[in-house]
Amino acid sequence: MPAFSLPYASPVIIATPPAALSSVPAGAYIGVTRKTLSNWRALGEGPPYARLGASGARIVYRVADLDQFLAEHMVGVVR
Hints:
alpha+beta; 3 helices
């Protein structure tokens, strides 16, 4: 007797998280506004970012850098 199988089983799709986020989702990820990220860039503060495109107008933040930024700003953590 053949093993049980689903005749119309759809393939499993595993979504991978994005490697980089634009300013609005990046800000939401770390709990600040797009404007705060903009201010930090102007002051040379905040998480690292990249400028993309021919004019460099597209700003993105790597998720790994956002995670590192949060880790570095934890309060009350013994290192």
